[in-house]
Amino acid sequence: MKEREIYVVGAARTAIGTFGGSIAGVPPSQLAVTVVRELLRRSEVDPARVGRMDMGNVIPTQDTYIGCVVAIESAIPEESNRAYARQTGSVLVPCATK
Description:
By secondary structure, the chain is of the alpha+beta class. The protein contains 3 helices and 2 strands; from the N terminus they run H-E-H-E-H. The longest helix is centred in the middle third of the chain and has 16 residues, at 28-43.
């Protein structure tokens, strides 16, 4: 197996707010796009160079493929995303074993 260099450039999350609060009308995918764009800005990484983006969400969304939506909106290659919808920390299992 050929060795590859892997870089974790950052991690972040959105505010969750209060029910019916100031971010109630903002779609979850748009909140995630804001976070991903900021991570790319902070790390000075060209979105086209992202080989893998793992995204998890705890609160169900209308965007079934939120990882795909966020990748496209953030100029990350669509085939690079993986999205997990989990209510627990078990989302870390597939990340750790791949």
